[in-house]
Structures are given as C-alpha cells and as structure tokens.
Amino acid sequence: MKKSWLIFLLFPALTFGSCVRKSYRPVYLSVEDGVDRHYLGEYRDDQRYLDLAKAMPDMRREALAHISKKAGLQRCGSNVLVSFRDGRGVKQGIYVKTGTRELDGEIVEVITFFVDRLLSGQMDDLEKSLHHEIVHATMRSCMEDRYKSLPKWFREGSAVWIAGQLPDRAEYILGNTLFSEDDPFSLLNGIESSRHSTDDYMEDSLLFEYIRQTKGPQAPIQLIKKTMTGLSPKKAFTEVSGQDWPALHSAFQQWARNFVAKKLQDAFHDEYQTALAAFKEDKAKARDLFSEFAKKHPDSFLTPLALYRAGKYHNFTGQFQEAIDTLNRLFGEKYKKHSYLLDDALVQIGWSLTELKKYPEAILRMEQLIRDYPDRPTIQGRAYYRIGLAYFESGKQFEAIRPLRKSLSRLSGKTQESCLVMLIKAYVKNRDWELAKDTLEKLESWFPKSKQLPRLRELVHKQRP
Ligand SMILES: [Zn+2]
Q1: pLDDT tens digit string along 408-436?
Q2: In this structure, what are the phi and psi dihedrals at residue 447, rounded to the nearest 5 degrees?
Q3: Model pLDDT for residues 262-292, shown as the tens digit of each residue
Q4: Residue 171: CB partners within 8 Å, gap ≥ 6?
Q5: CA separation for the pair 20, 391 (Å, rounded)
Q6: Given this model, what pLDDT does residue 316 score?
Q7: What is the pTM of this model?
Q8: At what angle do helices 245-266 and 269-278 cross, to 10 degrees?
C-alpha cells in the first residue's frame, strides 16, 4: 500500500485558503520574537515540546537569514510567525501548515507546527522543513495572491530546492515507491502532470537542480526572482535557459531519468531486486540476502527497506528475537528518517513480541503505535489485535475484549477470524451468553468454513445455563 501521506507529512502543502481570513482572532498569538508559545495541547508539559519552543526563536531567525542569504528572498512587509497546536481534525500526515492571517491590523504569515505529530518521530529534519515553510511564507508575503496562482510544481519545486531538501527527499520518495513495489521511473510523469501529489516533489525540485547544473549556481535564483517580479514560470525558465519550454522539458526529462537510474545504481538496487525475487521460492534465502545487503551496504538508501524485509522474513521463518533485533535498528538515528517504514515495522515487532510471550512489552509498544498513528485504521486494527491477543494469552480475557472489539472492524481475513474466536471464548469465560451467541453467529456468517466452529458451538450452546 502506498503511503504518500507520509511524504505529505514531510512536504506539507501550503494551505488555509486563498484569502486573508479577517475573522481569525487568536487571543493567545503574540508577536514578540516571532514565536507564539501559548500552546495548550496534549504535549504542553512534554520536555521535547518545551525544548523545541525554547529553541524556535533562534531557529526562525536563522532560517530567515539562511533563506535570504541563499536565495536573496526577504519578506515584504508582513511578518512571519511560528506557532504550535495539535493536529486533531487536520488531514492525516500533515505536520506543518503555512497560512496568511491578519493580526492587530497587520498581515502575518503563520507557520503552524502540529506538536503531536512532530513528537511521534515522523519528521526527519525540522530545520530544513522550517526553511521550506519560510520560503513559502516569504514568497507569499511579496507576491500576495499571485503566489497562490502559481502552479504547484513551481511553488513546491522552489521550496524543496531552496531548503536543500532534494537529496534526502529524492531518497525518501524513491524508497517509499520501492517499498510499495511501484516503478521508480513512473515518478517522472512530466512536470505538469494533472494530479499533483507529494510524490511529484522530487521531479519538481529536480527541474531547479537541472537548471543549476546546466546554467550555473545563480540560474535557479534568477528564475525565481523573474517569476516574483511578474514573469510566468515557463517564461522565466525559457529566459534563463535560452531554450523554449518543450525543448527544455524534454532535455530535462532525459536528465531526470539518468538521475534516477544513477541513484538506484549507487544504492545497489540490482542486489536488492535479487533478494526480493528470491522470496517467492525460498523465504529463508530472501531473509538472509536482505540481512547480507544491510551488512554490506549500510549507507544505501535501500538498507532500511532491506532491514524491514529481513525482520519481517525472520518472523515468517519463526526467528522472532532476530526479527525484533533487526527491526529495532530502523528506530535508531541512522535510519529513522525513513519514517514510512516505522508503523509497519512496529506491527511486525508486535507479532514477534506476542510470539515470544513478552506480553507487557507487546501491549506497551502497540499502545505507542495506536497513539502515534491515529489516522491509520489498518495499522490500528493490527495493533489492537496484538493487544487483545497479549491479554487473552496471559489469561486476562476480560481485558482482551475491548481491544479485540476495536480491531474487528479494522481487519479482514484470517486475523478477523482469529479475533472472533478469541472474543467468543472471552465472552464464554465472562458468562456473557448473549454476546457469545451473537459473536458466534457473526463467525458462522463471515467464516462459514472456519474449523473452529464445531468446538465453539459446543462451548456456547452446551455450557450455557
Ligand atoms: Zn511546501
């Protein structure tokens, strides 16, 4: 399953609507040092938030200075504020937003970080993300509504490129695409592709990098400035490159294909593919090939994917402790920026822990997963299932009921069947005969071929007083 929302989280879109909302009057927003620290959300006493809020005025100042030095972008009149809140009710995967507000008669660009999402480890580089948002904010403060009318590929391509996010983002987007087993070259679907998604950010920013490499270090800055002073983006690209748009675009596409091919080659993609292909024939062989890959190429951007597969296949082959040791490496400093893997890795760890009968630890880590990924129903279903199983297997049938019920609607197939079986047994143990009977009927209708049915029928009907 493709997790483009996770990229969304690292490349948040510019939002909040096209016009200034005059009705917005936050009572708490203060402009002292450009940072509003009156956050009253769930993590207000969390030391990590307190450290972040304390560091933010300097980070903001440095980000403004950096953007001004690197791209000559200075805000025009309106101020740039940083603010914090929780992401509840905001589209999943977004951890920061930038929008225009009016505050005490002054127009301000407000960058809002969603603290709950920041702290769950789903963000790779706060500094660069802040640079990215500052680019949006400063360009918007100068161009006003004209900025919103620029094509998205220009707005996001320039922000990613100026913020220096391209190298990491390209690896992130390519890695996520390969994780979903999609063709990495399909990412190069043309700058003006109709459905612009966060996967397109790589191609968008590559165009700016292409101009830098072919026309010199100042060329991208020149074309951004030309656009800011009134030229259309295509016209600006044509003036700076000296080529008409179709010729420029087709030369760029060839260059971008070479870029992706080189990235894959440098990451030992062919070896990765060999391990992936081995899985169909021999799970243990695939597992060992992926472990070997990670050992041989610790710096390849495919190594986190190899570790994930090695860990998962350790589970498939009954090596549960090895699975945990392998998967835990994904949470270390070196690899955790590949955040699109972390929720699936935790699901696998939940499996290993329950198999090893480490029930309290399984419950703890699955509760963490549920807290950190509130918007992922499938992941939540699997986590609740593991919690229910852990309680059930440790003899706490009563405690197992709630998580099992929660997992039921979020699951399908074998796990759903196993969930119903445990629920029936827990209800019987609790002497909840009506619920036991209803759940048995559910099992009969959803899984009429379930091998557990005869025994459960006996359990429910014969033991019932
Ligand atoms: Zn953006």
Answers
A1: 988 888 899 999 999 999 999 999 999 99
A2: -130, 70
A3: 999 999 999 999 999 999 999 999 999 999 9
A4: 263, 301
A5: 52
A6: 96
A7: 0.85
A8: 60
Which residues, 6+ apart, have CB-to-CB distance to 432 below 8 Å? none
Q: What's the 448 CA to ligand 1 centre distance in angstroms?
A: 50
Q: Is the pLDDT of residue 28 over 70?
A: no
Domain ranges of the chain: 1-144, 150-266, 269-463
pLDDT (0 to 100) of residue 20: 42
Could you tell me the distance, in angstroms and rounded to a whole number, from the CA of residue 12 to the centre of ligand 1?
5
Per-residue confidence (pLDDT) for residue 315, from 0 to 100: 97
Question: Mean pLDDT across the stretch 71-77?
Answer: 77
Q: What is the mean pLDDT of residues 22-29?
A: 44
Calculate how far, in angstroms, residue 90's C-alpha sits from the geometric centre of ligand 1: 16
The CATH-assigned architecture of domain 269-463 is Alpha Horseshoe (1.25)
Token pair for 206: 């590559």
Cα 159 to middle of ligand 1, angstroms: 6
How many angstroms does the Cα of residue 333 sit away from the middle of ligand 1?
A: 25
Rounded to the nearest 5 percent, the helix, strand and coil shares of the chain are: 65, 5, 30
Q: Which two tokens stand for residue 168?
A: 């990491």
**Ligand 1 centre and the CA of 22: distance in Å?**
24
State in Å: Cα 94 to ligand 1 middle.
11
- Whether the per-residue pLDDT at 36 is higher than 60: the answer is yes
Query: Ligand 1 centre from 74 Cα, in Å?
Result: 17
Ligand 1 centroid – CA 431 distance (Å): 56
pLDDT at 18 exceeding the cut of 50? no
CA of 302 to the centre of ligand 1 (A): 25
